[in-house]
Every structure is written in C-alpha cells, then in structure tokens.
Amino acid sequence: MNTAKSLKAACGGLLLVSLSLFAGCAAPAERQTITVKGSDTMVLLGQRWAEVYMKEHPDAVIQVTGGGSGTGIAALINGTTDICESSRPMSEDEKTKVQDQRKAVATEIPVALDALAVYLNKENPVQQLTMEQARKIFQAEITNWKDVGGPDASIVLYGRENNSGTYVYFKEHVLANGDFAEKYQPMAGTAAVINAVTKDPLGIGYGGIGYASEVKTISMAKDASSPAIEPKMENVLDNSYPLSRSLFWYTAGEPSGAIKQFADWVLSPEGQKVVTEVGYYPLRSTAQTTKTP
C-alpha cells in the first residue's frame, strides 16, 4: 500500500501509476501512423512490408487496406490515405484531381514488378495462349476449350471488378480496350478469382503472379509467330513476357518524414527482398541483390 501511494504521489495521479511501471513516470513516445490503401493485387505485399518495417521501427504504425487501385486513387485525391498502392499508372485526369484537391503533384514511385498471369485450373491441359486467343476467350469469340487445345467443354470466365487496376490493365493490353463478354464473372478480389478457378476445372482468370500458388499459370505469346513466354522473373526483368508491368505507390507531393523513410526502405535491397518473398519480382535496379537461389 505504501509503495502504491508513493507511485501515485511521484507521478501526480492514479492514472499514471500503470504508465510509471513501464516508463518510470514518463509519457510514451508518440508513434507515427502511415496509411496505405489501394490495389488488391498489392495488399499482401503492402501488409508484409508494413509488418517487417514495424518490427525494425517500433515508433512506426502502418495501416494497410485494399479495395482496388481505383479506391486507393480516390483516397489519395480526397486525402484519406498517405500512400496509394496501384497496379496501373494513374491517368492524367486523376493526377489533375490530386493537384486540384491536394494542391500537390501526384508523385509516382515504382515499387515492384509483376507478371499479370493468366490462371487456369491445374487439371486443364492447356499450356499456352497467344494474346489474341486470350482476347477472343474473354470476349466470347472462343467459347470452347477444344479450340485452344483443351477439352471439348465450355470456357468459364472469371476476373476482377472494374475498380481494379488489374481489370483496367487487362482490358487495355489484352482486350485492346474492348468489352468483356456478358458471361464474364467479376470477382471482388484476386483471392476470389483464385478460389473460383481452383474449384472450376473449366475456369480461366487473371491476376498478379504473387497469388498464383493454387492455380496453373500459362505461357503467353505476343502473336502466333512469337514464342510463348513463361511469367517468370527473368522474363519480366527483360520485358519479354507480354504482360509484364510495374506496381506503383503514389503520394500527394514528394514523400517526406516518416513516409519518405518507409518508401526509401521499400526501395532498398531489404525492402525488395520482401517483394521476392511474397511472390512478386524486384525492381530491375535491385534484382541481382534480391534474386533467390
């Protein structure tokens, strides 16, 4: 009882008794909070970066959520996130909105590389497609697997919803900005696409290479006269895989303070090692130092 009274008197109040046991009556250091929001493709990578970084920097608090690249870009424009993760480049209109509403230039930071992979069920014998075949499949000009070397059965289409950067990228680079077929089934996230294709032997989907452990990823050829290229790291680094892409962070203005420290760490060999561990590919500038055996 005497010890408790002494603590209370020393710290100036009962509320500080518990704090004094840990900090000798001193107030805890203020923690820095960074918000990261956007790409569903990148959310696992962002969460892993945050986890590793916070272990090394106990004063940092990093909150990472997904929702799609479009959601992250909207949050950057309205000021509800510090960092937007996007699996596609921001449009000029979106950058203008950042300038208008945040009074700052949208700063683009490439943080990793990805092979946008075409997913098949592991039971499907098809090993490769051309970009034109993929376009025809997702626009229902090819509707039977037998027309591309598979079984005599209807093709079932899965993919991302339209607020996804991966959806936009696939629409631009595979469909040449055409529309998806009416029977196309948009899914709320890449994990949902993987789950659907895993359960459906006749399914086909697409998404980031980092999610692809439970499905088969196939080789892609630019055209009928070109070789089919696997979505492997070396083929992304030399840009020979036709659906190679960068993954981005965006900030309103040049990053500074705690945000800059986090961004610099992500771009360092240590941060890029995390990229490889999650299943994506490191930036070309650090690929040699982060390449796994």
Plain-language structure description:
This protein is α/β, with parallel strands linked by helices and 293 residues long. It has two domains: 127 residues, Periplasmic binding protein-like II (D-Maltodextrin-Binding Protein, domain 2, 3-Layer(aba) Sandwich); 124 residues, Periplasmic binding protein-like II (D-Maltodextrin-Binding Protein, domain 2, 3-Layer(aba) Sandwich). It is built from twelve helices and eleven strands. Helix 3 links the parallel strand 1 and strand 2. The N terminus and C terminus are likely disordered.
Topology of this structure?
Blueprint: H1 2-11, H2 17-23, E1 32-38, H3 43-56, E2 60-65, H4 69-78, E3 83-86, H5 92-102, E4 106-120, E5 128-130, H6 131-138, E6 156-160, H7 165-173, E7 185-187, H8 190-199, E8 203-208, E9 216-217, E10 219-221, H9 233-237, E11 244-252, H10 257-267, H11 269-278, H12 287-290
Parallel strand pairs: 1-2, 1-3, 5-10, 6-7, 6-8
Antiparallel strand pairs: 3-11, 4-8, 4-9, 4-11
Reading the helices and strands in chain order gives HHEHEHEHEEHEHEHEEEHEHHH
Write the CATH architecture name of the largest domain.
Answer: 3-Layer(aba) Sandwich
Into which percentage range does the β-strand content fall? Answer: 15-25%
Overall mean pLDDT stands at 89
General shape: globular
User: How large is the count of helical segments?
Assistant: 12
Please count the beta strands (DSSP E, at least 2 residues each): 11
What is the straight-line distance between the termini? 61 Å
Short structural summary:
The chain is α/β, with parallel strands linked by helices. It contains 12 helices and 11 strands. Helix 7 (165-173) links the parallel strand 6 and strand 7.
